[in-house]
Amino acid sequence: MASVGRNVLGPLLFLNLVMYFIVLGFASWCLNRFINGQTYHPSFGGNGATMFFLTFSILAAVLGIVSKFMGANHLRFWRSDSLASAGATSVIAWAVTALAMGLACKQIHIGGHRGWRLKMVEAFIIILTFTQLLCLLLTHAGLYNSRYGPGYRDTDYGVGGGATGDPMHKGGPVGGTRV
Length: 179
Known about the structure:
The protein has helices at about 1-35, 50-75, 80-110, 115-140. By secondary structure, it is an all-alpha fold. It has one domain: Up-down Bundle (Butyryl-CoA Dehydrogenase, subunit A, domain 3), CATH 1.20.140.
């Protein structure tokens, strides 16, 4: 299970990273138009939920981008200590993306004129909610393999590998006094 998760996680991380950058760019453009009061622009539009949706979309995109960098770090090392940071940022990014998806659904339900850029941000947020959840599950796939579980430590990393486990004293007992 862990090798399957690790093999699929790399391309999914890259796909989500690109999608989050697209959401960040278009949501920022739409928010700038909305703040400037240019909702009459043919490719924008909007309704009462637009301001909230765009704010949470930008927040979800920024958290998602950070989550992808932490996920790439975990993919590189694939240890339990890298899983902690990757898992925490992935859960937070998924939660905010799910909140933005709820606001996207509300904006779609309200209706009115919405331009192609807003519709694209809505679609990307809805897609990212599910791909981020899949990414979250694949990030935690190493927990189900005994080699990469929570107690796994590579012998080439940190302490260990010596007979006594003490890197300062690899040989026998050390003479002298202790201070």
